[in-house]
Design brief:
Keywords: ATP-binding, Nucleotide-binding. Belongs to the ABC transporter superfamily. Ycf16 family. GO terms for molecular function: ATP binding; ATP hydrolysis activity. This is Fe-S cluster assembly ATPase SufC. Residues 2-248 form the ABC transporter domain. The chain has 251 residues and is an alpha/beta fold. It has a single domain (2-250), classed as 3-Layer(aba) Sandwich (Rossmann fold). 38% of the residues lie in helices and 28% in strands. It is built from nine helices and twelve strands. The chain has helices at residues 42-50, 74-80, 97-111, 119-132, 150-164, 180-193, 207-210, 232-241, 244-250, and strands at residues 2-11, 16-26, 31-35, 55-64, 67-68, 82-85, 92-96, 143-144, 168-172, 199-203, 217-222, 225-230. The strands form three sheets. It has a six-stranded mixed β-sheet with strand order 6-9-10-3-11-12, with helices on both faces. A four-stranded antiparallel β-sheet has the order 2-1-4-5. Strands 7-8 form a two-stranded antiparallel sheet. Strand 1 (2-11) and strand 2 (16-26) form a beta hairpin. Helix 2 (74-80) crosses helix 3 and helix 5 (150-164) runs parallel beside helix 6. The longest helix is centred in the middle third of the chain and has 15 residues, at 97-111.
Length: 251
Amino acid sequence: MLEIKNLHCKLEEEDKAILKGVDLTIEAGKVHAIMGPNGSGKSTLSYVLSGRDGYVVTDGSATLEGENILDMDPEERAAAGVFLAFQYPVEIPGVGNMTFMRTAVNAQRKARGQEEMSSAEFLKVIRAKAKEMQIDADMLKRPVNVGFSGGEKKRNEILQMAMLEPRLCIMDETDSGLDVDAMKLVADGVNALRAPDRAFLVITHYQRLLDHIAPDFVHIMADGRIVKTGGPELALEVEKNGYADILAETA
């Protein structure tokens, strides 16, 4: 589904190389986790794939089901099925959560040539999905993320993901700042969205999230490259021994 080949990028303002030849293939229906020390390029990879400003691709390619997403604007990538869950979801004062989600859903449906959802249809669907994910219906009436706890913000993003039904879900340290109960609720929401035609790229520092979202593959990233790939046992190795041994192996 996602094919990344020899991807290089730098910071636009500092002319500093961050990604230095990332190669990664993510198949439909699979969950890939990326771990690595601070500054290894994990979050930068998520930003480059989603089209965030401030990064310049200097070499390589990234294709989603054969389409080159690097040539697309962020909204075009979203319409193609790319979703990024942020480490720190932003607050949008004055914009109702329900209005925001319906606008996003219908914008994507329109871009794909689909009929827009009516208010009644949207309300029925979002209430059902919120109930499945144990999200209080009152959250839907509040401004986007305003006054939400860390766990509520993350669950709200998972609800957005459920409504938008992306093909590629990129999760940038979604477990950051969550307590155990909130993390489990988020993980349950992610697991409910696993499907044969959907892939996940989960970026995390900690094994604890992967206890709940069992990945098919774990990749270790260091100095802008993926230096080691394995199964779930690789995350356990990192949890037990840290990155030093792995980095020494690949030096």
